[in-house]
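Reopening this one. Same input as before:
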Amino acid sequence: MKVYHHLQQFEKLENAVVTTGTFDGVHYGHRKILARLNEVAVKNGGESVLLTFHPHPRMVLQPDLDIKLITTLEEKIALLAETGLQHLIIHPFTREFSRTPSEEFIRNILVEQIGARKLVIGYDHHFGKNREGSFEHLKAYGPTYGFDVEEIPEQDIEEVAVSSTKIRKALEDGDVATASTFLGRPFSLSGKVVTGAQIGRQIGFPTANIQCANSEKILPADGVYAVRCRINGEPTHRKGMANLGIRPTVNGADRKLEVYLFDFKGNLYENQIEVSFLKRIREERQFTDLDSLVVQIHIDEEAVKKYFAQI
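Same output, byte for byte:
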């Protein structure tokens, strides 16, 4: 897959088969669109192209909403590369760009800059200034600008019943199992292991204190989770449990992600760890003292190991 970080970097194709959208999460519904995009490209001897945007348009147009991303830009690129997509254009999204009228978007960008001969879009997709562009709009302009357009049928999208909004809501509720079902893979995040207060080591549960790599990335609800981890991209997934939250029992203030890996010995400082969230065991809560916390951690460990034994 070839990646372009601006439309100006892209050289117009003779037969481009194009889709557009933010594709945050690259979830099951997105993959269905991309599979059809690639299928149409092969059938028509063309090349598949996704035009997406960064930052996320809602971050630019509705900054007060504090939208968090399911996938970082780097994660999105890696996931899209797995789909068989041939060309990925990541165009900078600005307020000025958002004011592009839909016909101008179709003529100047899709046709003249990319070379679109066919478009494949999701049901109820909108684009251009004030989201005025639609499937009907594209269909009307197709004969004028020399392209065909195909819309993924409503029943196909409803059958999947997936959206980035639903995934964010599931994560905010701590329902990582539902989020993973929608994504078609476990929700994950990555970061570097940094020095913490080392309280876990003192109570017999040495944890990796992970500094999340991107502040725009969404975090699940606070609590204790069953997780799988990869260290520095190694193929082996290691089982463990994680606590995400402010750690009120030890007077914590900032949200932190701490991971305890089962059957692991060694120094993890400065290593990169990818944490995949599989199941929320319980919410975070405050205990009267460290001894009570240790008792609960043993209970959590048994619950997580029981979960792994059942899957």
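So the earlier flakiness isn't reproducible anymore. For the record, The chain has a mean pLDDT of 90.
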